[in-house]
């Protein structure tokens, strides 16, 4: 009878080892995925910053063109 108990215990220990091994593999996969996602986040943040700067530059150019247009329209009104 104790031999059967020992076999059951051995089986449960083996199941526990297998489960731990699978969980360790899953943890490694999740760590790799997390690292890849972190890189994606950094890349997206960098792109966002670049687009914000570019947008600001376009806004400044637009303001400059609006001012030039106002100046030209003012000169046209003076001519009439």
UniProtKB/TrEMBL annotation:
It is found in: Cytoplasm. The keyword Transport does not apply. Residues 6-47 form a coiled coil. Gene3D superfamilies: 1.20.5.340. Belongs to the ZapB family. Homodimer. The ends of the coiled-coil dimer bind to each other, forming polymers. Interacts with FtsZ. This is Cell division protein ZapB. It comes from Xenorhabdus bovienii str. kraussei Quebec.
